[in-house]
Amino acid sequence: MRDFRRESQQMLVERFGSVVRLIHGGRVFEALSDEEIGTLVELPQKTDAPIPSPREDGRQPGAPANPASIIVVEGLVRRFDGFTAVNRISFEVRAGEIFAFLGPNGAGKSTTIKMLTTLLEPSEGRILLDGNDPACNKDAVRKSFGIVFQDPSLDDDLTALENVRYHAVLYNVPKNTREAKIEELLKLVELWDRRNALVKTYSGGMKRRLEIARGLLHHPKILFLDEPTLGLDPQTRNHIWSYIRDVNRREGMTVFFTTHYMDEAERVADRIAIIDHGAIIATGSAGELMNRTSASSLEDAFIALTGSAIREEEVSAVDRMRARRRMFRRNR
Amino acid sequence: MSAIYILWLRQVKKYFRARSRIIGALGQPLLFLVALGFGFGQVYREAGEGNYIQYLAPGIIMMSVLFTAIFSGIDLIWDRQFGFLKETMVAPVPRWQIMLGKTLGGATVASFQGLIVFLLTLIVGFRFHHALLLPLAAVFVILVAIIFTSLGVAVASRIEDMQGFQLIMNFLVMPIFFLSGALFPLEGLPEIMHYVVRVDPLTYGIDGLRAALINVSTFGLAVDLVVMVGLAFILVAIGSYLFERIQA
């Protein structure tokens, strides 16, 4: 469920390709091009009730209390040689929601994603992804999600098209829709013209866009995004988020993403879990987190909850001044 | 099955794109062929063994197959370092299929390298026994390629850094090559050597290739074939087992 109340004062305009989208007062309107802007069509809204995920019988014992939870994590721990990266975290993600893991670098976000996506075995605790345990039922779990990693995971010696086709085959994207889907996604991320260029000739931002397109290719039930927009310009960021939100709304795709951008978590996520030093500090919608701490922005709520501002890798002097000014205002 | 194919295709495409690597990899076998073939040719003939190039060529073909195959494990380490391995590892494809696709890809590349060296030996003066036996020669080349690609993948599954891999591989590759009978006949060796060459899997591959190309064999075709096929199965199984345990 998106909290549109905060946005009701303003009108949000998003564009992707020629499509124009207006978000106003919690309603979403769309026109296929600028010329058709006079005939905006309202898109079906996301309902407040979580979309129940279809499940077969024979679920594993100890299924979650909330049947609509597509991700259930209980007491998850991961240690590396005496260092505890993730320390007893528990949370649930409802089917069809956009869930953000907000925290500084080194908080344990990527480690959690790795455990959720079968790349790393938990030291302790339990995970259920769409009813399956990634520790013992890897193949079933792998079918249910798509992932965009934090670090690049493309083959530089192949072209963009080859990289995407490789993915399509591994994920069994049906042949008859494969090429059309690839074209649609590559056009979305504006790489269609460069589709036959080797990926090693791409810039960092282009690679990122290609990876996001690839992650969406097989229409996963759950999409994991590990710092998906790191290093992208704001325009591309908006672009990609509006597409992801669109797929989320249209197909009920659950989105789980990590970020250390406050505005991104606030703008995109239905619910946010704040994670710091391997532990979850608080969970709730941006509005709830702000109410709980009587803060006026998510950033202030974050500071109130974790006791510190988010640790940016490259904090600019301006950012530091802003943070100081905020602290000053808060203490007054 | 399509997953095995796409993994195979990727390896093969990348190989044919790296033309400088193909040509560079021909330098060593050519040097061995010319320096040893012509250098020892005279001694060999005077010992009453005939034409040394004839004897040496199958050994050098297998040398290039061995080197290309075993070092294709490096691709796996590159994939890990550049993150591409993760993309493959989270895909809903059984690990053994990934391992098999990689192995067949590496083996295809190694076999092709063997084919090019075979053509080179023809230029240097090598003459094979009978054209009808060439498919049998190809079988031995492919078996050796599969065995040592699996070995490379198995080692690369456990070793994460490039330097460590190259160290271990050099430690393995050199004895496997020099103790295989690639360069010398297996008859009349000192007792220890007699047993050492029989432990080396490459010995049987080269013996089989000699049987097919020049109609000379120490163990006989049947023994060579059984040993090679058996080893191929065992090494693919070991490779799959170790590959299955990779944590990215």
Read across the widest sheet of chain A, the strand sequence of neighbours is 9-10-11-7-12-13
Distance between the termini of chain B: 24 Å
Q: Nearest-angstrom radius of gyration of chain A? A: 20 Å
Q: What fraction of the residues of chain B are assigned to beta strands by DSSP?
A: under 5%
The outline of chain B comes out as: globular
- The biggest beta sheet of chain A, please? 6 strands, mixed
| CATH class category name of the largest domain in chain A | Alpha Beta
Strand content of chain A: 15-25%
Number of strand segments of chain A:
13
CATH topology title of the largest domain in chain A: Rossmann fold
What integer is the average pLDDT of chain B?
Answer: 91
Q: Distance between termini of chain A?
A: 35 Å
Descriptive notes:
- The complex is a heterodimer of chains A (332) and B (248).
- Chain A is of the alpha/beta class and 332 residues long.
- Chain A is built from ten helices and 13 strands.
- Chain A has two domains: 1-47, no CATH class; 94-119 and 137-331, P-loop containing nucleotide triphosphate hydrolases (Rossmann fold, 3-Layer(aba) Sandwich), CATH 3.40.50.300.
- Chain A has a six-stranded mixed β-sheet with strand order 9-10-11-7-12-13, sandwiched between helices. Chain A has a four-stranded antiparallel β-sheet with strand order 1-2-3-4, with helices on one face.
- The relative contact order of chain A is 0.13.
- In chain A, a hairpin with a 2-residue loop joins β2 (19-24) and β3.
- In chain A, α4 (175-188) packs antiparallel against α5 (204-216) and α8 (286-292) packs across α9.
- The mean pLDDT of chain B is 91.
- Chain B has 248 residues and is an all-alpha fold.
- In chain B, α4 (52-71) packs across α11.
- Classes of the chains: A alpha/beta (332), B mainly alpha (248).
- At the A-B interface, α2 and α3 of A face α1 and α6 of B.
